[in-house]
Specification:
- The chain has about 260 residues and is mostly beta strands.
- The chain has a single domain, classed as Lipoprotein localisation LolA/LolB/LppX (outer membrane lipoprotein receptor (LolB), chain A), CATH 2.50.20.
- About 15% of the residues lie in helices and about 45% in strands.
- It has a 13-stranded antiparallel sheet with strand order 6-5-4-3-2-1-15-14-11-10-9-8-7.
- About 25% of the residues are buried.
- The N terminus is likely disordered.
Length: about 260
């Protein structure tokens, strides 16, 4: 057992160390732990249903598929394919996320039979008429932001860290993001997006998380509401499958045109 004087010394030392961790350091540490926990899934596929809802509550539906893979030493790659409705069938979106350089993104438009490259300056624009921007659809890479822990807070009964993210890359449509990160799973429960005037633009809520392979958490629903337009987009995710054995060939530009 520690002697009283020695115990007091270690308590004081612990307090000093705790105070020495800045809000920025704590925010980064939380995000790095979230990134560590989600590493190693190799590749995945999932079925998606997208519901677009205008200010009047009128809805339209789109059916999509997505396949993704991790890339060692870089960000993830993903290919999203639209199956319905008929006017967007065959449209495909290819994204290469990079940690320190501008992301590469391409959109294949079957009506024009050509691949359109999405420029860095246009990635704040809406993805296929939804409330998700092109930059919202890239994988999360720690180096793309700087961070600040703001507080601990319960959200709908879930204990969360509240972290502020500041884009470290050019041409973002946001000045900052505010994320509620589940303390148990280290997955986001809610993200608020603030526009270039620092006004609240959108809120993204994650629901229906399930764990796969006893490690990886994935949401069942992502609900995005645009507070400035009144429009909403829901994305329902199901049939996740991992370790499909994808190669470079499954994520090159030819795969856009061949997507079915």
């Amino acid at each position: 057992m520690l002697k009283p004087a020695l115990a007091m010394f270690f308590c004081a030392l612990f307090a000093v160390v705790a105070l020495a961790e800045t809000a920025e350091e704590k925010g980064l540490a939380i995000v790095m732990e979230a990134d560590r926990r989600d590493a190693g899934w190799i590749d995945s596929t999932a079925d998606m249903r997208m519901i677009l809802r205008n200010k009047q509550g009128q809805e339209s539906e789109r059916i999509l598929r997505i396949k993704s893979r991790e890339v060692e030493g870089d960000g993830d790659q993903s290919l999203t394919i639209f199956d319905t409705p008929r006017d967007v069938k065959g449209t495909a979106f290819l994204s290469y996320t990079h940690a320190l350089t501008a992301d590469d993104q391409w959109l294949y438009l079957p009506a024009l039979k050509r691949v359109k490259r999405i420029s860095s300056s246009n990635k704040s624009g809406p993805f296929m008429g939804s409330e998700f921007a092109f930059e919202d659809l890239t994988s999360f890479e720690v180096e793309k932001y700087t961070y600040k822990w703001l507080r601990d807070e319960a959200l709908d009964g879930v204990d969360c860290f509240v972290i502020e993210y500041y884009p470290a890359y050019q041409h973002s449509g946001y000045t900052r993001q505010l994320a509620w990160v589940n303390k148990d799973t280290y997955q986001p429960e809610r993200v608020e997006f603030y526009d270039r005037k620092n006004a609240l633009l959108k809120t993204l809520s994650y629901k229906g998380y399930q764990q796969y392979q006893s490690k990886f958490w994935r949401p069942g629903v992502m609900h995005m509401v645009n507070h400035q337009t009144g429009k909403e987009t829901d994305i329902y995710m199901e049939n996740y499958k991992f370790a499909n054995g994808f190669s470079d060939r499954d994520f090159d530009q030819n795969s856009l045109k061949e997507a079915r």
